[in-house]
């Protein structure tokens, strides 16, 4: 069985998650096909693909354009397969940000017209070495407001790998019923 894993990445955390999912899928007996939407035409062949995992980060309240273009241009073919959409973002790491993170995912699905079988919010990472002054200030004064996390201390990963494993394994073994997977928020 072929599983398509299509991802976009901005700072590298979503690419890391996509490679992790690829390993999980191969261990579960799937032939995993991994594509980066920034390096692929917006229309892809889904021949022999039985399941799809789509994942992308949220930056400035949206998922990358290349990701949304791939989802929108392949919407009908994607909807004929079992699908899981993972929205990766820092807001998903905190209980107080999960509603907003869900809104970003819902807005992307509305823009693309795609209706996946399952969705989940996945906490991302902070990589301040990649940020300019403005991004660091927004991170510290808006996104991380009130949290004892100092972005000047360097990269910090919030992704819960055990939780991600459970989400992916459940989807790969799922018998086709529609559901929404809701990982628990970090309390940090």
TrEMBL record:
Q: Is this entry keyworded Flavoprotein?
A: yes
Q: Where is the Flavodoxin-like domain?
A: 3-139
Superkingdom per UniProt? Bacteria
Keywords, A to Z? Answer: Flavoprotein, FMN, Oxidoreductase
What Gene Ontology molecular-function terms does this entry list?
FMN binding; menaquinone-dependent protoporphyrinogen oxidase activity
* Biological process, per Gene Ontology: heme biosynthetic process
Q: What is its EC number?
A: 1.3.5.3
The protein depicted here goes by the name: Protoporphyrinogen IX dehydrogenase [menaquinone]
Report the source organism.
Ruegeria arenilitoris
């Amino acid at each position: 069985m072929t599983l398509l894993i299509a991802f976009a990445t901005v700072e590298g955390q979503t690419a890391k998650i996509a490679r992790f999912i690829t390993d999980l899928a191969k261990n579960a007996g799937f032939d995993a096909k991994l594509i980066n939407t920034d390096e692929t035409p917006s229309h892809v062949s889904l021949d022999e693909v039985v399941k799809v995992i789509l994942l992308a980060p949220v930056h400035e309240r949206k998922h990358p354009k290349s990701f949304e273009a791939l989802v929108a241009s392949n919407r009908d073919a994607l909807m004929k397969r079992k699908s899981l959409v993972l929205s990766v973002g820092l807001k998903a790491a905190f209980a107080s940000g999960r509603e907003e993170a869900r809104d970003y995912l819902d807005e992307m699905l509305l823009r693309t017209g795609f209706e996946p079988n399952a969705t989940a919010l996945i906490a991302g990472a902070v990589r301040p070495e990649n940020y300019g002054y403005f991004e660091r200030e927004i991170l510290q004064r808006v996104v991380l407001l009130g949290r004892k996390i100092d972005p000047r201390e360097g990269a910090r990963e919030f992704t819960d790998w055990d939780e991600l494993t459970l989400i992916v394994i459940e989807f790969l073994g799922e018998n086709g019923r529609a559901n929404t997977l809701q990982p628990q928020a970090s309390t940090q």
